[in-house]
Each structure stands twice: as structure tokens, then as C-alpha cells.
């Protein structure tokens, strides 16, 4: 029964993980991996605490120590939404035939890599899909970032949004698409001068102002709404407002659209859209500039690539191996292996049948932006 064990496959699995995890999956190593995922079933919430800002006040000398002001911790829920597998198999004739070509061991290792790749890309795509929950945006639709030689202003402006929103100064990340990566690699001379071997092994193009920059093949260009002629209510809205009443206008403003208001150059990300006059909701922290007591025209920014800047703590990936019955199932061998770079733990299982065998690679996961204020888009 030596053939019915995954032990000889472990070196092949690690080699496949090493190859795939260093491909264009910039979001996975940039996000926070939540270890509580092992306690939750698919569809079940994992509660994450969000601590409030500290209370302050004027110093008043006294002989009695003042009581601390009570604070209430907030929370958000992350849900394991997917439990997925990728599989492949061989029968005895397949194996015999493969040995006349590349060899069964080579083909099996390649299929392991492909299975890992497909799962990894699905996780990466879900993380990139969080772009619709980010706070604000910088950049010009249709203009790829980093197009000017030796100019890192695009990264600095994305980082400025994070700083203005109160994000920590450490562990900020920027993940760009391959078009921006071409400009970055081709026009920014510091990439070759400053990119160390350790950075390259981690998939980092360059560290700009303490913000590692990675590429992702899953950065998307979402469709935009077709709404037009919308204006804000003439009552006006103060700084920090997230729900803005729109009057007049028609058509759809979609969640994830980037919008501006006349007289305000800030680009806001919509979290709840409209199909007619009503309440439009933008991501926290809301308006940076107050809308005056006058109707201000809303404009939807043209479709553009959504490169993503964020503090690591804002983007959470909860992942684990899919659950098995305590009694077990028909797999003759199961092993879980953790990719040392991404932290993802995938499960590998072998199911023998009559003169054939099925291999399975599986993962369960969920993603969430738990702190929109600490996220920003860089348009391209």
C-alpha cells in the first residue's frame, strides 16, 4: 500500500507551492491571515474586534484620581463563504502511458501545481474584489500609474489617503496590476538598484516610503453605473457624512463606483448605490470636504483599473482546510501543508478507486475589509 500515501508527494507539493506563491498574487501575502478560521463552519461568522479611538480631555489637577471614561469595543464579522477543491486523477493505463513521455512523476507534479494555482487565483480574485469597499481614490482613469520616469508620486498620493484617514504608519501595502507593473519596472530606476534578493523572493518590486509594492494578475477594471444628472440635496452635508441624499437625475450608480461632487476634487467610493433619487452611501470616513448648502452635481469616474493601497490590518483573509466528518471519509490519506510565504494551509487528499486514483487539493476561505478608512484605490 505504499502507493496509497501522500508522504512521497510532500516534496512535490512544497515545490509547487513555492512556484505558485511567487506568481502574481500580491494580495494574499499583503493581507492579514485570521487564525480563528479553524473554529468556524462555512456560512458562520468569525467576530473580529475593532477598538475605538482613545478618549482625551484637559488636564485638571485634583487630589482624587478621575474615573476612566467607559469605552465600547466595536466588532465586525468575517464569514467563511467558500469551500472549494481542485482535483485530478489517473488510472493505471494513464500512468503507464505517461511514463513513455515526460514521466508520471513530472505530470503529477505539474497537475498539483495547477490545482494549487487555480485555488490561489480564486482567493486572490476575492481579495481584489474588495476594491468596491475602499474609502477614496487617487489617480486618473485611463492613465496607468508610474508612467513618469523616477517619479513615485502615485504611490505617495495613495499613501497620503491612508495617512489622512489615520492608518498606522507601518505595514501599509500597495498592490498594482501588470500594466502599472510594466511602468514601474521599466521607468523607475530604483527598482533595480534597491530591490534586494529577499524582497524579490517575497514578490516585492520595491519598498516606497515603507510601503511594499507587489503585482497582482487579479486587479480588475469593474463596470461602472450609467447614472447621470444627479445632484446632492441643497441642504448641504458636513465633513464626515457618509449618506448623501441625491435629488433629480436618473440611471444607476453602482456600489464600487468612484464619484466626485462639483467643487470637491476628492474621489469617493460608493458602498450603496442608487437607481433613482435617494440616499447614496460612500465609504468611511465619508466626506473630506463639506458639501455646501447648494445642489452639487455628482459625476461617476470612468471605468479604470483599481490598484489597491491599504494597511495590512484592514484586509483580512480567513482560511482553513475544509472540514471533514469526525468519522473520516473515503480518503486513504490526507495531509495539510502550509505555504510558508502566504500562510495559506491547503489540504491534500488521495481517494483510490478501482484501478484508478483521485487527488484533491482543497481550501475554505472568506475575505473582508474590516477598516475601510485604512484603504484607498490608485486608479489606472
Report what the structure shows.
With 380 residues, this protein is of the alpha+beta class. The protein has three domains: 2-50 and 76-129 and 317-369, no CATH class; 131-221 and 306-313; 231-300. It is built from seven helices and 20 strands. The chain has helices at 10-20, 92-98, 104-128, 153-164, 178-187, 190-194, 197-201, and strands at residues 32-34, 45-50, 74-79, 82-91, 136-138, 172-176, 204-208, 211-215, 231-232, 243-247, 258-261, 264-272, 278-282, 298-300, 306-311, 315-320, 333-338, 345-352, 356-369, 375-379. It is globular and about 80 Å long.
Summarize this structure briefly:
The chain has 380 residues and is α+β, with helices and mostly antiparallel strands.
Content-based structural category: alpha+beta
Largest sheet: 12 strands, mixed
| Number of H- or I-type helical stretches | 7
Alpha-carbon distance between the two ends: 55 Å
- Give the amount of beta strand, in percent: 25-35%
Order of helices and strands: HEEEEHHEHEHHHEEEEEEEEEEEEEE
Topology, number of strands: 20
- How many domains, as an integer? 3
What is the alpha-carbon Rg in Å?
25 Å
- Summed over residues and divided by their number, the pLDDT gives a mean of 86
Low-confidence stretches: none
- What would the principal axes of the Cα set say about the shape? globular
The helicity comes to 10-25%
Amino acid at each position: 500500500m505504499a502507493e496509497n500515501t501522500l508522504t512521497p508527494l510532500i516534496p512535490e507539493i512544497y515545490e509547487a507551492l513555492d512556484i505558485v506563491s511567487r506568481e502574481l498574487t500580491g494580495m494574499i501575502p499583503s493581507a492579514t491571515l485570521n487564525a480563528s478560521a479553524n473554529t468556524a463552519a462555512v456560512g458562520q461568522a468569525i467576530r473580529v474586534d475593532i477598538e475605538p479611538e482613545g478618549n482625551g480631555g484637559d488636564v485638571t489637577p485634583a487630589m482624587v484620581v478621575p474615573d476612566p471614561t467607559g469605552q465600547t469595543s466595536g466588532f465586525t464579522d468575517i464569514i467563511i463563504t467558500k469551500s472549494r477543491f481542485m482535483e485530478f486523477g489517473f488510472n493505471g493505463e494513464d500512468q503507464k502511458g505517461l511514463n513513455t513521455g515526460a514521466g508520471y512523476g513530472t505530470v503529477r507534479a505539474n497537475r498539483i501545481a495547477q490545482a494549487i494555482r487555480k485555488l490561489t487565483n480564486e482567493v486572490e480574485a476575492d481579495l481584489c474584489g474588495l476594491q468596491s469597499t475602499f474609502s477614496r481614490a487617487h489617480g486618473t482613469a485611463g492613465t496607468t500609474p508610474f508612467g513618469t520616469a523616477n517619479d513615485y508620486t502615485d504611490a505617495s498620493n495613495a499613501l497620503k489617503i491612508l495617512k489622512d484617514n489615520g492608518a498606522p504608519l507601518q505595514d501599509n501595502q500597495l498592490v498594482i496590476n501588470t500594466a502599472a507593473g510594466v511602468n514601474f519596472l521599466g521607468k523607475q530606476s530604483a527598482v533595480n538598484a534597491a530591490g534586494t534578493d529577499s524582497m524579490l523572493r517575497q514578490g516585492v518590486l520595491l519598498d516606497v516610503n515603507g510601503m511594499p509594492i507587489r503585482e497582482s494578475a487579479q486587479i480588475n477594471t469593474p463596470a461602472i453605473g450609467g447614472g447621470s444628472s444627479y445632484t446632492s440635496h441643497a441642504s448641504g452635508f458636513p465633513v464626515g457624512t457618509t449618506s448623501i441624499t441625491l435629488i433629480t437625475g436618473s440611471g444607476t450608480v453602482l456600489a464600487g463606483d468612484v464619484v466626485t461632487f462639483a467643487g470637491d476634487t476628492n474621489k469617493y467610493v460608493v458602498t450603496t448605490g442608487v437607481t433613482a433619487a435617494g440616499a447614496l452611501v460612500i465609504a468611511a470616513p465619508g466626506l473630506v470636504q463639506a458639501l455646501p448648502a447648494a445642489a452639487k452635481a455628482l459625476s461617476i469616474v470612468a471605468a479604470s483599473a483599481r490598484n489597491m493601497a491599504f494597511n495590512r490590518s484592514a484586509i483580512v483573509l480567513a482560511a482553513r482546510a475544509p472540514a471533514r466528518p469526525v468519522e473520516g471519509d473515503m480518503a486513504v490519506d490526507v495531509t495539510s501543508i502550509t505555504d510558508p510565504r502566504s500562510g495559506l494551509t491547503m489540504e491534500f487528499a488521495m481517494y483510490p478507486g478501482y484501478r484508478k486514483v483521485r487527488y484533491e487539493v482543497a481550501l475554505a476561505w472568506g475575505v473582508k475589509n474590516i477598516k475601510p478608512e485604512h484603504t484607498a484605490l490608485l486608479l489606472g
